[in-house]
Amino acid sequence: MESSKTILTKIFTDYYLTAAQAKKEGKPIAYITAFTPVEILRAMGVVCVYPESYAVVCAASKKAPDMIHASQMAAFAQDLCSYSMIDFGAEHYDRLPYGGLPEPDILIATNNQCGTTLLWFKLLAQKKNIPLFIIDYPDAIGQQLTMRDYIRRQHESLIAFAQEHTQNTIDSQMLVEQVENSKKACRDWKRIHELNKQSPIRLSADKIINALFPIVAAKGTQGTCDYYDALLRENQESPQAELMDATRLLWHGYPMWFLGKKFPAGFDADFQIVLNDYTLWWDLDYEEGVDEMESLITAYSNTYLNRPLEQKIDWIMGLVKDYSIDGVICHANRSCRRALADIVPLRKALSKNKIPSVVIESDMANPDFYSKEQVGLRIESFRETLRAS
Ligand code: SF4
Predict the structure, then answer these.
(1) N or C: which end of the chain has fewer CB within 10 A?
(2) How far apart are CA 27 and CA 31, in angstroms?
């Protein structure tokens, strides 16, 4: 049986090689945003590429500052989301990881995470002169039939759009398989996090971050199911470490991709991040007991960033309780205005429940907005606060 590490390496390299090879073979390529119903496009033989995920690769390989600088030289404002800045800078930069992304034939954007992606993809469509399809997901639709019908019709229009521009038709059996694989991957992804409800935790937060790529960029595939299955098994079976009385922390929001461990220094076995809620944003709510198109409606309209504020805060407070959290570190990520809006109400709810919290200001991908000294001081003083409480 292959180890999770071997499977992950394969998924990662295959993803970039497959996209480059597909371009050579004339297969249709779509650039898509993070919460696009990828299962539909894959079932139509479209090769899907995520520029946001590629921006993470660029940030982790320390290329982001040069690429962001290149986009600033091309007159993009520095206060845009750094993922978009990295993408805009890519065309002016010649040392791209994996040789860059292949050129797309179509673009698909959604508004179930933010408004930035819509503007970003509109600009790409203009510059590259290629067709763009936008999916509108109203928030909090629940079981409202008119809203569900509205989204269903958009998913049908997506199929028509992809068919028109690629000449491919949808393989219904493949769609069923893709959705079933997505459900299974999400179930295992959640269970992997839940291993950390116990003390000591089974997987450090940076290990979970390192396992994120397949559920972001290869959801719906058999390889991703195999990966999470192996990761879960390995960690369920690992010997129980000695019980420690650690301070249990929740890191709210984005990690810092440019740091080696994706989180700042200052944490250890006594003061540990047991959960980063950001990684659970990819545990989508695929509805069971309905057909695959219905299941996709629930999954993609109910993404974390598309929920009303009160629902988001309730969800995080539920995690605080379930994971026995002692303190919360909120990453005020300059790039993401949608996520920034959570911080004030979250801290109010935490304070009401007597859970200490601290805010760290930085950026997920641009190290120019990160001060090691300031962040280090904040973490140290938060540790003192928790010791005294
Ligand atoms: S980081 Fe925030 S602003 Fe940037 S693409 Fe993601 S959701 Fe949108």
Answers:
(1) N
(2) 13
Residue of 114, 137, 256 best suited for mutating to test ligand 1, as the one with most atoms within 8 Å of CB? 114
Pocket of ligand 1 contains residue 342 by CB under 6 Å: no
Q: What residue spans define the domains of the chain?
A: 4-171
| Helix/strand/coil for 253 | coil
CB contact burial 11-34 (16+ within 10 A = b; e otherwise) = bbeebbeebeebbeeebbbbbbbb
CA distance 133 to 110: 9
pLDDT digits (tens, 9 = 90+) for 142-180: 889 999 999 999 999 999 999 999 999 999 999 999 999
335 CA to middle of ligand 1, Å? 7
Q: Is 118 in the pocket of ligand 1 (CB under 6 A)?
A: no
User: Architecture of domain 4-171 in CATH?
Assistant: 3-Layer(aba) Sandwich (3.40)
Estimate to the nearest angstrom the gap between the alpha carbon of 316 and the chain centroid.
16
CA 166, CA 45: separation in Å to the nearest integer?
9
Is 247 near ligand 1, meaning CB less than 6 Å away?
Answer: no
Q: Which helix (DSSP H) or strand (DSSP E) does residue 295 occupy?
A: helix 292-301
Closest C-alpha to ligand 1, atom 4? 81
> What tokens were used for 106?
């179509």
